[in-house]
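During the reporting period, our protein records have gained a structure token line. A sample record is set out beneath this paragraph:
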Amino acid sequence: MALPEHPAPAIRTSGLYADVIIPRHISKAFTYIVPHPLAQEIAVGRTVLVPFGRTIVEGAVISLSDRPPNGIKSSRLKSIHCLADGAYGTEQGSSWLELSRIIAEQYVAPWGQCLRLVLPWQLKRRASSVRYRATEPGRAALDSGTCPDHLRAMLTRIARTRRGISLSAIRKSRDRHEWEAIEDLERRSWIVATASADPRPDALVQTDEPVAHEAGARVAPAPSSSPSPLLPPPATEHTERDSLWENRIVEYLRADQPKKIVLHAPWEHRINRLADAIRHTLAIGKSAIVLSGEADKAKWLGRFLSDIGEFPVSVLSPAASPRRFGRAEEGSPSVIVGTRSAVFAPLRSIGLIWIDGEEDPAFKEPREPRYHARGVAWIRAEMERALLVLASAHPSLESMFDAVAEIHTVPPDPTSRPIVELIDLNREPRGTLFSRRLVEAMDEAVSSGAGVVLFLNRKGYARTLLCRDCGWMPRCSACVVPLAYSRESDRLACRYCGETDPFPRSCPTCKAVHLVSVGEGTERAEAEARRLFPTASVLRLDGDRLRRPSAARDLWERVRSNSWDILIGTQALFQHLPFPRRGLVGVLQADSGLHVPDFRAAERMYQLLDDAVGCARPAAQGGRVILQTKFPAHHAIQAVLSGSPHRFYEEELAARRLLHFPPARHLAALSVSGADQTEVTTAAAQWKARLEELSDAMLTVLGPVPAMGRTPKRHVRRQLLVKGTDRALLCRWVRDSLEAMEREYRGRRITCIADMDPVDMG
């Protein structure tokens, strides 16, 4: 695609034309003239500065030609300003370009947006870094009087000093003629644009503060001089399994082939293996990237690896991630630790990519381009011929049943497990929040000073119904997810396929009229705890109380100082600094997460309950966990009760296969939003029809239905869910239909979004 503006005079050029991708919401390339001075240096993969409208932007050269585009005169094309200072060489630039292209293809995103992810981060500079300087031919034109009158003033201004003038200085005048003079002078090669280095400091910093890891690990801040002060004592046994792991790591690192391992192991075993893997990676002269879903945990990992003192570690701050990487690209083997964006760290010769807590939804980018760090990590591993380790105490089903991955399981130490009890709330009085057994156990723990943690999951909670007498819950007959109450229609609706049922006035199973919204809030739990234990110190920690940073700091300080007897919280407990294991952990409604209308509800509930169990002391130290539930036979709850993760994975996979959800199928979530409800509904139905026509009914398209989650004020949003067996075909059909929708609704205030491999079904 060309930028047809201001005709240029017939000036000597290199005869080369470059197609350049611009980092915007654009998939097509723009064609520019390659100035003669750049002809010897320009190459595919080089980063360049080009005029784009009335500004200067970075772009990447994707192809070169000796002919202009068909139907476009070269006089109507603009010229490349300059090579971006400090850009990667041709080979490395080409690999970054290919990475951005693959991401665009696999996540149905504009190539230009994906280019923003992989541009050398030290080049994301402001336009003020661009300066125009006079060339020797330009100075000669001034001296000889051959410079045209309409260009003389600008050329004189630029030639006045060796430093020239900045682009920002020209912008301030807002004079169109000055800009046209700049373009004309560039075409004549009388001036040249250069990009100065970004003076801002390195974004890679050593951490100075201890931070957290997942629930159950025992951590205490300590002086920085103390070696590895933040970790539970590492496992020291030299078992056959440990030797097997080390031998595999060495073998795979030296094989120079892409390899994927799922490490299913408790925290203390993962951290030891991470350190070993990094040592072996650096020993063969390669670098490592370590990713965490939480910024605090990334800082903690960086601090721990730095404390070992054997290898260089830099932590990528999320706030600084758009800035330059500094030393990261210099070539010496190093270790980068960060959140999902660190997967794009411009390290040379990567040998290891380690994703800790790989099931964390935070690895999915919520904005365009909606990549998943786990998927991008595998793309990089394939390109770099590196080892990818997906590590977790409870890996996702997608990873556990990945046909490419090798599973390596390290069972937890049975002596570290607490006693786990199950309380069937169906046998308790109606409306019970604290069972009699839980109250007895709390009394013992408070009296002995062992401490009580009460967990209540409310995040992502959707309003649904439950019969208090028999446990009946309305579910979609096709998707088997709980039906949610819709205030609009006063009906129960499936958030996937749109099936609706009338609001029941009584239970269809037992005819009881005790139908209630599922779940109790943390505020009620706090009030009940204070009533039952008036002399105990009760602390509540949930999203509402953590919203203000200053209040959050005070709360976490109280948690760390152990100045409480009873701590009541949501899953936020597992996402920050952990506290020493307590004597009693009570889960008030172990099944509450099962009622969310999401096919991953059971998996996420299992993971949260597994984390909650990790907050209790070992049984030998009096540790106890009490799970209260209305569904004691559910496979997720039974797996936690028995400490049998394989039982959960096998039963959950069978359910996913039956219902055609990942990992048995690939998934895309499509949404249409706008201010006009009729137009949005029509567009969503039209998108569905296009998909079914394109795929010849090879895809399953559910919806459209009203979308869950937040919607802009005075807007409506409709959602489609698309299932397919072949991911490449699914991507192709989604892309083709999306492009058709964008063409048809351009300028009509309708927004169409495609999300491949969605993790948030809202």
Observations:
- Residues 2-12, 122-127, 197-241, 320-327 have pLDDT under 50 and may be disordered.
- The longest strand covers residues 55-65.
- Residues 251 and 419 are 40 Å apart (CA to CA).
